[in-house]
Recover the amino acids of this structure.
């Protein structure tokens, strides 16, 4: 029978080795022959002396040539079971055969013990050499190949076949890993971690051992194995399974909050970081390993952690709001920075939310779960809104400074809700933005109400007969500029928005007074004068507000479009202008158009109806209504 070559070793592995199919033979033989010749050129038999060096099985074990010892035993096995001659089946031969089989079985057990002992030292470089470990691995591979060979034969197999050395190899490494990860003998924790709990120290110890051993496997042990045995992934699975089993026991124990957090962080952050090291990631199939803990064990831990974090978050935010409320009750004004009132309510809350959600994402390994921390944020925003309503309602001397400071808070909250939307669930984000919008509207109304009260005397003169003849609008502009000085005190972006809101409201009031006014434009001359007046007012109002910080440029165009309607004489031209106005501002109603056209007393009812029908047709054809810039809905004509 022909024997195959295994792992780079030839069956005649020693120089000059001459194998004879003799079951009694238990050693390798190295044979050389020294010859001399006679003077007639023939060899002298007496001088042909073989020189033989015996390499015994025991000698191979002594020098730990485990692969060669395995080859020798396999050769003996082949002799004993592979090709038994009929003449050897006599009683005496069979008796001797049985003795040889027993001897071979004994030698196999000795070799097996030595191979397993070597494997148990795989991760202890100082106790076993790489050459010996490599030899032991090759012996295992040879035994596995021999097991496979026997499955293909139709002969009586030896009692020890299949030997299962590959399974023994794997179970030995499994036991080795379990011993090295033994929690009863943790590594000494570093000095900066001596304050850890017993559970934290054990987990940290196992993690360090896992990292160090896997790196050793990749850097050193891998070189002792053939690629097909995939030793790095085998060790990766063994360490993963062992760590998982230990952590399951810990998770079942019932943990304090700190230990719960530490365990989750190991499972979801620290452990993946170890496996993601380039030297490990290139050798170990991390995805195939899966989670360290199953979902049924993770969920209670995650709930415990998230509930505790949410409790702390809500408690802290509540404390921030209560502190702000207490300062207001004490009559304190917000602090100033660069001349602006500022509140740290939003900053403190945002920093905490950002930090806790970001940390929770790492701890639980899932952003969606971490977002649950902010699920009650809407309720807290409602508390903030109630607090602001109280400030507005009571209107204490420090109420205006607080509201001005709050405008900056709204900017900060909106910024984080929109630019860091990953911190929040969609419904929470939307509801919080809605609350902020309500609070901002209330704040603007509160701050601008005194301004409109002061401007009422000038408002009343708009749309009167004096409006076209006297420079009444100049007085309004002066009053507006004076009132704008009193609105100072918010941060720049918030003040700009507040000024823009006043710009919008003054423009809306101007249009309302114009449409409800008593002036009647009976002829082309007066209509042209009205056009010039409205256009000039629009430009002057725009210049003033731009100077004061408004960026609402679109408001000037509304007044100019209205002025164009007043100037035009041809009905088709008026139709086009009104349609253009309605297209730009779809909240323009027939009621607004009727009031505008009534100013032109030379237009008949039929003409006015025609213009309004054109507007209706235009709005119907344009389909959806875009109210991104609502204006005429603010112009109330009661």
């Amino acid at each position: 029978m022909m024997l195959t070559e295994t792992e780079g070793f030839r069956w005649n592995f020693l120089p000059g080795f001459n194998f004879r199919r003799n079951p009694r033979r238990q050693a390798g033989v190295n044979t050389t022959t020294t010859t001399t010749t006679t003077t007639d050129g023939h060899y002298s038999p007496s001088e042909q002396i073989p020189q033989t060096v015996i390499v015994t099985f025991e000698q191979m074990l002594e020098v730990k040539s485990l692969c060669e010892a395995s080859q020798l035993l396999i050769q003996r096995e082949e002799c004993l079971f592979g090709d038994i001659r009929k003449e050897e089946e006599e009683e005496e031969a069979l008796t001797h055969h049985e003795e040889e089989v027993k001897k071979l079985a004994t030698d196999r057990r000795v070799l097996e013990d030595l191979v397993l002992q070597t494997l148990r030292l795989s991760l202890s470089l100082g106790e076993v050499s790489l050459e010996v470990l490599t030899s032991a691995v090759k012996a295992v591979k040879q035994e596995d190949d021999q097991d496979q060979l026997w499955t293909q034969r139709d002969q009586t197999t030896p009692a020890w076949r299949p030997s299962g050395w590959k399974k023994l190899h794997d179970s030995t490494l499994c036991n080795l890993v379990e011993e090295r990860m033994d929690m009863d003998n943790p590594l000494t924790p570093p000095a900066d971690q001596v304050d850890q709990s017993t559970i934290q120290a054990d987990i940290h110890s196992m993690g360090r051992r896992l990292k160090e051993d896997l790196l050793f496997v990749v850097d050193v042990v891998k070189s002792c194995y053939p690629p097909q045995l995939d030793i790095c992934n085998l060790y990766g699975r063994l360490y993963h399974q062992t760590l998982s089993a230990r952590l399951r026991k810990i998770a079942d124990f019932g943990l304090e909050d700190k230990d719960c957090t530490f365990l989750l962080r190991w499972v979801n952050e620290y452990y993946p970081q170890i496996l993601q090291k380039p030297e490990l990631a290139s050798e170990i199939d991390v995805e195939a390993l899966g989670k360290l803990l199953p979902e049924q064990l993770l969920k209670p831990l995650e709930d415990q952690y998230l509930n505790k974090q949410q409790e702390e978050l809500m408690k802290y935010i509540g404390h921030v709001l209560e502190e702000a409320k207490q300062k207001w009750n004490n009559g304190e004004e917000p602090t100033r920075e660069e001349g602006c009132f500022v509140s740290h309510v939003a900053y403190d809350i945002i920093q905490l939310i950002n930090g806790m959600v970001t940390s929770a994402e790492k701890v639980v390994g899932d952003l969606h779960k971490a977002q649950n921390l902010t699920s009650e944020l809407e309720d807290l925003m409602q508390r903030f809104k109630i607090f602001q309503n109280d400030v507005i309602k009571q209107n204490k001397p420090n109420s205006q400074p607080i509201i001005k400071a709050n405008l900056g808070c709204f900017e900060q909250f909106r910024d984080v809700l929109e630019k860091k939307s990953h911190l929040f669930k969609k419904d929470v984000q939307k509801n919080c933005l809605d609350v902020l919008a309500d609070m901002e509207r209330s704040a603007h109304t509160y701050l601008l109400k005194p301004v409109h009260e002061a401007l009422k005397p000038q408002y009343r003169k708009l749309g009167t007969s004096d409006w076209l003849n006297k420079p009444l609008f100049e007085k309004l502009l002066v009053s507006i500029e004076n009132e704008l000085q009193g609105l100072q005190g918010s941060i720049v972006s918030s003040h700009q928005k507040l000024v823009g809101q006043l710009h919008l409201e003054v423009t809306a009031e101007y249009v309302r007074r114009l449409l409800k006014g008593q002036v009647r434009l009976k002829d082309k001359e007066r209509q042209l004068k009205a056009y010039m007046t409205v256009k000039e007012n629009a430009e002057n109002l725009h210049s003033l507000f731009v100077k004061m910080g408004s960026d609402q440029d679109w408001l000037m165009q509304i007044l100019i479009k209205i002025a164009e309607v007043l100037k035009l004489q041809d009905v088709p031209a008026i139709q086009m202008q009104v349609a253009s106005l309605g297209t730009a501002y779809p909240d323009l109603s027939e009621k607004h158009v009727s009031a505008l056209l009534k100013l032109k007393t030379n237009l008949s009812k039929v003409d006015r109806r025609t213009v309004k029908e054109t507007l209706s047709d235009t709005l119907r054809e344009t389909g959806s209504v875009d109210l991104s810039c609502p204006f005429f809905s603010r112009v109330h004509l009661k």
